[in-house]
Amino acid sequence: MDHTALLNRVHPLLTNGNRLSAQSFEALFGTCTRTERVSTQMAGWNDNGRSYGGGGYNNNRNGYSNSYNGNRSGYSNSYNGNRSGSSSYNSRSSYGPQKELPPEITPKKVPEDYVDEAERIMRSLMSGGKTVTTSKIRNLLSLVTDIYNKENISPDEKLQPDSIVKLNLMRVRVAYECGRDDTVKTFVAQTKLLEYLKGISTDRADLIRFAHYMEALVAFHRYFGGKEG
Predict the structure, then answer these.
(1) What is the 3-state secondary structure (H, E, C) of the chain?
(2) Which has the closest alpha carbon to 199: 95, 108, 112, 66?
(3) What is the pLDDT of residues 140-184, one digit of tens each?
(4) How far apart are CA 1 and CA 140, in angstroms?
(5) For residue 116, what are the CA distances in angstroms to 8, 216, 220, 223?
(6) Distance between CA 196 and CA 210 in Å, rounded?
(7) What phi and psi, each to the nearest 5 degrees, are found at residue 50?
(8) d(CA 122, CA 216)
(9) Closest by alpha carbon to 139, among 192, 168, 176?
(10) HSE toward the beta carbon, residue 109, CA cutoff 13 A
């Protein structure tokens, strides 16, 4: 309501000493007062909006967004940095050089001069210092002795099925003992026990020669001063 219209309404009420009641005052000025107050507030909001109102809010939003995006990128970089750093965790080099695996076992036949071979090998091993004990060699020999005692009296040229199974189990046992004791591992590698075991296949004569070879190894180990234990 503009001021001219307001005065036109108030003027008759103020003539002849009339007084406005509170209700009349609210009826006349209330709408104007509220309207001006709201208008003033809206103007203030609009003015303030340039600094901290609408625009400020947008600026804050942008600032928040930039900060958020910055944090995201920072987090991402940190995360990616950690991920790249984790490569050192996955890298085997962080644990030192990888242990070299032994070569694949190739089947071989025990040579006919196995006694001379046993002497040469045990002389070399015993001159090298610490070596396998006599008791450990005997334990390996005992694995084949049971098979030998049965096959030695057999008239067949081929091994019996249960003897083949026991030979395979002996290979497993020898490999296990190599993993437990480095002296056994060196002994088995030099004497080629795993290669000779794998080379027996189903031939009975090969088994008998292998058993004699094992006996020769035990004998020369003792001959060159091998220790019990």
Answers:
(1) CCHHHHHHHHHHHHHHHCCCCHHHHHHHHHHHHHHHHHHHHHHHHHHHHCCCCHHHHHHHHHHHHHHHHHHHHHHHHHHHHHHHHHHHHHCHHHHCCCCCCCCCCCCCCCCCCHHHHHHHHHHHHHHCCCCCCHHHHHHHHHHHHHHHHHHCCCCCCECCHHHHHHHHHHHHHHHHHHHHCHHHHHHHHHHCHHHHHHHHCCEHHHHHHHHHHHHHHHHHHHHCCCCCC
(2) 108
(3) 999 999 999 999 999 999 999 999 999 999 999 999 999 999 999
(4) 116
(5) 140, 9, 10, 14
(6) 7
(7) -70, -25
(8) 10
(9) 176
(10) 8
At residue 33's C-alpha, the angle toward residues 32 and 38, to 5°, is: 100
| pLDDT value, residue 9 | 62
| Tokens encoding 116 | 């001379």
Question: Is residue 88 scored above 90 in pLDDT?
Answer: no
Q: Which residue has the tokens 């965790």?
A: 89
Chain position carrying tokens 């900060």: 67
- The Cα–Cα gap between 119 and 213 comes to 10
